[in-house]
Amino acid sequence: MTLVQLKYVITVAGAASMSEAARELFISQPSLSSSIKELEEEIGTELFNRTNRGISLTPEGKEFIGYARQVVEQYELIESKYIEKTAQKKKFSVSMQHYSFAVKAFVELVKQFGMDKYEFAVRECRTYEVIEDVKDFRSEIGIIYINDFNRKVLQKLFKDNELEFVPILDCSIYVYLWKGHPLAGEKLINIEELSEYPCLAFDQGNYNSFYFAEEVLSTYDYKQIIRANDRATMLNLMVGLNGYTLCSGIICEPLNGTDYCAVKLDSDEIMTIGYLKRKNVALSKLGTKYVEELEKYQDMALS
Question: Dihedral sign, CA of 131, 137, 143, 146?
Fold first, then answer.
């Protein structure tokens, strides 16, 4: 196994076809195919599915590519520091379920460190993608919640992927809605009062299991439900249709504005928001500071 082969695998994984990857690498397609085949034979694992319609990573290939990226990135850092003598920006990436306070913590981190020496990335994505991103080294940290309902399923998934979940906030359940909603002035809302209004839930794509839902009470038989895939759309539906979603109750007005509020749901349910990291891998300086920013919201976690 060579570094060149790892670079080839990464390029092929990001291309639509073997010929496209070969053009990008400035080598012939037969040479590229032969190199990839030799690597697969050496490690005894098929990395790509090959069909008339193109190529795609196998499940084993997806796992391999995560390690390959880490090796190549580390080599490039060493090469930059000791051979090319160029200033290489340090990278920090975080993936998260849709939490505005986690985005705000990210904003504060960027302000503290600046972008002259650091390259930042943030991904608001589906639950399974958060887990995959941390597993495949695409992100150092993943922000996610667990509760009594999904705990066993998600913790098994964490264990199988050599991930560790670290709790940060324990939160009661709140109804998140716009201030013009008929129930916005209530001090406590029960689930039956919400039946005449659409529940808004984040679409989980191919992993639309109850266990991957970002909203608690995912098995409740809602009279009306609308699925969306981004936070801005959720806010528009709250105003346009008097929709609501269930959340932690932590309001981040600097990002979402002052037109929304959170009202306590009449429920004993608790959700624990925390972060995922690779097991036995220490957080970087930026990762540690980001967690410190998240921990500042502990006093705002409404109970």
Answer: positive
